[in-house]
Design a protein that fits this description.
Blueprint (H helix, E strand, L loop, with lengths): L1 E4 L9 H9 L6 E6 L11 H10 L4 E6 L7 H6 L4 E5 L6 H10 L3 E6 L17 E5 L13 H15 L5 E5 L4 H10 L3 E4 L1 H4 L4 H9 L2
Parallel strand pairs: 1-8, 2-3, 3-4, 4-5, 5-6, 6-7, 7-8
Length: 214
């Protein structure tokens, strides 16, 4: 299992120790949730903060744009050195074009689905994406309870990927812990995003290791 801890749950008064913890951990990525207060009911952080984080983080950056018109920011995300750029299906009128431009910028393209957005809507794009992120909570705030229907959606997504010969990975974001993580692994998930579960723990390294070795 791959693990992508979410910076949203870190200590924003002093991010350096938390990023150094990520650097020394078994995590595979650092997940960065960019929120604009329009697409989701919250504002997180912008590119000045991301630029500072990118200078000290040695893990690949998994950038998740919870914003309107995410295609306007492809070059800025690329300039961070991001490995993955995640955009919401619900925010992209011309999704195929956005995915193509992300690839042209040298990044892996991820498409995110909100809890009420069906997996079937990806049937015409699934072969072109590198990753699908399923929100297992309503986007906008950390620390929410896992939505059980995500397990069904994960299985549906896995079937879609297999039937289309897509190489897309499945990432899950929201309410992840060792219990939901184990169920998600069984359902077919490849990457787990965890915020409060990791950064709220007395031993974050141990929590990351638990998810990594599910």
């Amino acid at each position: 299992m791959e693990v992508s801890p979410s910076l949203l749950a870190a200590n924003f008064a002093n991010l350096t120790p938390d990023i150094e913890m990520i650097n020394s951990s078994e995590s595979d990525y650092l997940h960065l949730d960019v929120m604009d207060g329009v697409f989701v009911p919250n504002i997180s952080f912008g590119f000045p903060v991301l630029g500072s984080v990118s200078k000290i983080c040695r893990k690949p950056l998994d950038v998740h744009l919870m914003i309107v018109e995410p295609d306007k920011w492809i070059s800025q995300v690329r300039d961070l050195g991001a490995e993955i750029m995640n955009v919401h299906y619900e925010a992209c009128t011309h999704l195929h074009s956005v995915v193509s431009r992300i690839h042209q910028a040298g990044m892996k393209a991820g498409v995110t689905l909100n809890p009420a957005t069906p997996v079937s809507l990806l049937s015409d794009i699934i072969e072109d994406v590198d990753l699908v992120l399923l929100m297992s909570v309503n986007p906008g705030f950390g620390g929410q309870k896992f939505i059980p229907n995500t397990l069904k959606k994960t299985k549906e997504l896995l079937n879609l990927i297999k039937s289309s010969n897509s190489k897309a990975k499945i990432e899950i974001d929201g309410g992840v812990n060792e219990t939901t993580g184990a169920a998600l692994k069984e359902a077919g998930a490849d990457i787990l995003v965890a915020g409060s579960y990791v950064f709220g723990a007395q031993n974050p390294h141990e929590r990351i290791s638990l998810l990594k070795n599910l």
